[in-house]
Amino acid sequence: MSLPDPAFDRRAAALLRAAANDLKRDDTTAEADLGLAPGTFAGLTSGEQPVDLALLGRAAEVWPLNERDLLPGHDDTSRRVRIMRAKESEASSRVLARGGDDYYEYRDTAMSRVASYRPEWIRMLQPVDDNDADNPAVRWNRGHLLYQFTYFVGPVNYYYRWQDRSVCVPMETGDSVWGLPFAPHSFTARSTDEPAYILALTYGGDLVGDAQRELAILGNAAAHQAKLTPDGGPAALLRSFLQARAVTVEELARRTGLSAEHLAVLVDGDRQPTGTERAQLAEALGISERDLLPPSTGTDGGVVVQRSATAHRWHYPADSPAYRFTQLAGDASHPHTTALETEVLARSAEDTAWLSTYQHSYLYVLGDQPVRLLWEADGERYEEELQPGDSAYLMPEVPLSFVRTDPEAPPAQVLLLRIAGAVLPEVRHALGAMPEGGIERYVNEDRLWYSKEGN
After folding, report:
1. What is the spatial distance between Cα 83 and Cα 382, in angstroms, rounded to a whole number?
2. Cα-flanking dihedrals φ and ψ of residue 170, to 5°?
3. How far apart are CA 366 and CA 452, in angstroms?
4. Could you give phi then psi for residue 285, rounded to 5 degrees?
5. What is the mean pLDDT of the chain?
């Protein structure tokens, strides 16, 4: 079966060439391995002939690769943007029951194959008349893999459970929550007289993809051994590097000039290294200082609750504001996730401000005012009017801006959530270290790794 998308075909060809280069196969040896006729491989890796799934299966059989290593991603955007209208969202409506009663109405919002967002609009169908976490009307889930950012609209009760402790938090419009994977939670409505729904924006981050697939092969025991717990601190990281490099405390003492007795205290976690000591340890182990710093977290019971009333608010830009931002829930353990409630102050394209980020961007039009979305892609500028309930996804590094549709109407409100994809700082640093032309080959390998002419 041929791969139907020409751009997909080109990416598949580049991955095939890159894989052969990595395995040190030229065209002749690759053809021998894969049972291809002479001259065929050049046509496949140039894009002249489509790479079919049968060939990928064969390559995964004879080479130490997985099929996924040779399958490129799909691009389902149009001009680097994917928009979902409110009517499309309503058409996706489905009601799910729990305990025999209708519990939630789900609706899809804008998603893309390019990013790990799984954002849903969810209306609470189960009302309660108290804030008791043990109310029998509350139907708990079992938790799920994805991280979840939740934005609340109306009188919604949020329930979460952590280490057998159940909590109910009454929420109002503009409140938000960020939560860890696999923590049971639930939502109910405190009233049937006004809207009560949430925007549940779940995403996988770096938990999904290659890491999950690798640990599924390694198994539970290896996953437990690999985990770094919050209370492990710098000592757990230090022990990991000592084990990886087969370095003893005595050898580390020789390299750093610190006493073995003092290092034993650091390795056991009885004391944290000072900044100077951390620099000495990093140099001795040939790593960066940041590799010895565990992430910090502000979670309590696996969640961060951000009340709208106490959230940071600021104007952007400071001198001629086009927006008023409100910082929503997030956590220091996920520094590449940003959630903002955006009040659009700009009345025209001339007085707006452009926003750009390395993160994937999701947006949802809140309230009852439409907004104009402007963006740039491949040297061209585009514009779409978004109505309340419309949502959109934009690729990283795509400049965007918002403008009020009606300059005299109240400011439009937009929920803006940004997440990192697979291009994390390690990859970005690697890109920055490549020689001229390296990035182009990394994105789309188009040649044999050596010249047969010898130059």
Report:
1. 13
2. -70, 125
3. 60
4. -95, -5
5. 95
Cis peptide before 317 (omega within 30 of 0): yes
- Alpha carbon distances (Å) from 163 to 123, 167, 182, 204, 230: 27, 11, 12, 22, 15
Q: Is 257 left (phi over 0), alpha (psi -120 to 50) or beta?
A: left
Cβ contact 63:23 at 8 Å: yes
- The first and second tokens of residue 438, run together, are 């390296």
Measured between alpha carbons, how far is residue 336 from residues 147, 388, 406, 423 in Å? 13, 27, 33, 11
Q: What are phi and psi of 276, to 5 degrees?
A: -65, -45
- Predicted confidence (pLDDT) per residue in 351-403, tens digit: 999 999 999 999 999 999 999 999 999 999 999 999 999 999 999 999 999 99
Alpha carbon 54 to its chain centroid, in Å, reads 31
Q: What is the pLDDT of residues 147-201, one digit of tens each?
A: 999 999 999 999 999 998 999 999 999 999 999 999 999 999 999 999 999 999 9
pLDDT in tens, 205-222: 889 999 999 999 999 999
Classify each residue of 240-273 as buried b or exposed e, where b means 16 or more C-beta atoms within 10 Å of its C-beta: ebbeeeeeebeebbeebebeeeebeebbeeeeeb
Confidence of residue 4 (pLDDT cuts 50, 70, 90): low
